[in-house]
Design brief:
Number of helices: 5
CATH topology: Rossmann fold
Distance between the termini: 14 Å
Largest sheet: 5 strands, parallel
CATH superfamily: Response regulator
CATH class: Alpha Beta
Oligomer: single chain
Number of strands: 5
Length: about 120
Amino acid sequence: MAKILLAEDESVLRMLITDTLEDEGHHVVEACSGQEAVERLETTEAFDLIILDYMMPVYTGLEVLTRMKTMKLKHFPPVLILTAKSQQAVREEVLASGASGFMSKPFSPMELAKKVEALLDEK
């Protein structure tokens, strides 16, 4: 069982992702904004994986990732960025920022579960 931080501002999508990952046996900690994600990172024990929406209120997913690099995390987990933007330039920006993976919305719950397992297996 992995401990996963999910930061997604769309409540229906956040619920779908949480249900999917919990059905796979993972523990999901939710955040509905980039700021809340940073707060969770500062106050919660280490996460095994972090899933960030690209576009969120207060801090974007990339801004959260940048802030993570300056935090004193016990270990730096893989980061998966979700986005409705599927342009190649966005994909390159996400991967250049240090994210471990990228998924375009919409996606199937099983596609997400497979990507999460692959990232967890890599670490």
